[in-house]
Design a protein that fits this description.
This protein has 123 residues and is of the alpha+beta class. It has 2 helices and 4 strands; from the N terminus they run E-E-E-E-H-H. It has a 4-stranded mixed β-sheet, with helices on one face. Helix 1 packs across helix 2. It is globular.
Length: 123
């Protein structure tokens, strides 16, 4: 896997760590599979085999979850780098550009969306 990705001209480092080796718990005590630090230009992904409750999952399931999390965090990076993360209507935990449900949707549908664009000759 790559250890960096370019987001709209800005390079982000990507790191993979075991759950207990990084800050995969937020200030509310929620467990995180990954995070994007737009200020540090860094995306951290949890080795899902070390994530609490996932220790017995097969390696393929863990790697697929890590890829989905990486796509999710890359979406956060894109929204930040294009200026949308700070300029959406802010309600409690953030506007639409910071909404985890919206980011999940983009991350999950992205490969299929790209495939459809490619199939239609839109790339």
């Amino acid at each position: 896997m790559n250890d960096k990705v370019t987001i709209l001209g800005t390079e982000y480092a990507i790191s993979y760590s075991k759950y207990n080796e990084d800050m995969f718990t937020n200030s509310n005590g929620e467990r995180l599979c990954g995070y994007c630090s737009s200020s540090a230009k860094h995306i951290a992904i949890c080795d899902m085999g070390s994530f609490p409750g996932w220790e017995k999952e097969d390696i393929k399931t863990c790697r697929e979850s890590e890829k989905e999390t990486l796509r999710h965090e890359i979406v956060h990076a894109f929204l930040h780098e294009c200026g949308l993360a700070d300029n959406t209507f802010n309600i409690e935990r953030g506007g639409w550009a910071n909404n985890e449900e919206m980011v999940d949707w983009i991350a999950q549908i992205g490969p299929r969306l790209y495939k459809a664009w490619e199939e239609a000759g839109a790339i």
